[in-house]
Design a protein that fits this description.
By secondary structure, the protein is mainly beta. It has a single domain, classed as Sandwich (Immunoglobulin-like). 5% of the residues lie in helices and 51% in strands. The protein has 1 helix and 9 strands. Strands 1, 2, 4, 5, 8 and 9 form a 6-stranded mixed beta sheet that branches. A 3-stranded antiparallel beta sheet has the order 3-7-6.
């Protein structure tokens, strides 16, 4: 079962977080030779999604970093979203993290 973690992100800002990948028993997942993918959707059934950059930092220790650039968060409408992070090895896909994102509205716009 995936760990549930909710995030608050400021619209128009860069955002990143470091996560340790763990399996359902709580053991660290060695991310060597794994593919990490993550997406945000407005709701579970949305066909449109936004990719969250997900890269292994120290693969044997299971640490990875999730990133959204300021350009990406500025282009999104403020509100609530859902996300998850999946790790793939060969044909085995494991969801390690999921939750809600509250994209808080930006008041100061760069273009103004």
């Amino acid at each position: 079962m995936a760990t549930i973690t909710n995030y608050n992100i400021d619209q128009g800002s860069d955002w990143s977080t470091i996560v340790t990948a763990k399996d359902s028993s709580g053991a660290v997942i060695d991310l060597s030779n794994h593919t990490i993918t993550s997406h945000i959707r407005k709701n579970y059934t949305s066909t449109a999604s936004i990719a969250i950059s997900a890269d292994a930092l120290v693969p044997p220790e299971g640490t990875l970093i999730l990133n959204l650039t300021s350009a990406v968060s500025a282009a999104m409408k403020s509100g609530y979203y859902y996300y998850d992070v999946e790790v793939t090895t060969g044909s085995i896909v494991t969801r390690i993290l999921e939750g809600k994102i509250h994209l808080r509205p930006e008041v100061t716009k760069v273009s103004e």
